[in-house]
Amino acid sequence: MILGIGTDLCNIERIEKTLERFGDRFRERVFTDREQHRAERRAHATAATYAKRWAAKEACSKALGTGLRMGIAWKDMSVTNLRSGQPVMHVTGWAKERLAKMTPPGHRAVIHVTLTDDHPWAQAMVVIEALPEAGPAA
Predict the structure, then answer these.
(1) CA 83, CA 93: separation in Å to the nearest integer?
(2) Phi, psi values for residue 119, rounded to 5°
(3) CATH for the stretch 2-132
(4) Closest CA to 74 of 88, 60, 87, 84
């Protein structure tokens, strides 16, 4: 069953200007070390990488039904990538607690995330799904 859906559209040029203006202060406030490492490795796509992750955090907060004003910290949500390139959303802190409260007994939550960009836009969509826990084999 679907527990939540969130989407966000982010302007890459806005993130680029924010990086120019606030630099490390912005990066440290919003992104995990791992997210920063990935973005900074992509010399020609640094702002786009940050913008996609920004959009993913916004989309995740919406899928959790709270938005960012209700206690979720930016770093409570982070995006990594599998070797295949598939993005994976991780939640910690208050976001993890909120997800646990949303998840029905006997189920486990799975967060699906997709990211895309086409300059000047970056977009993310997050779907939170509850799957039944595997019961004992009969």
Answers:
(1) 26
(2) -45, 130
(3) 3.90.470.20
(4) 60
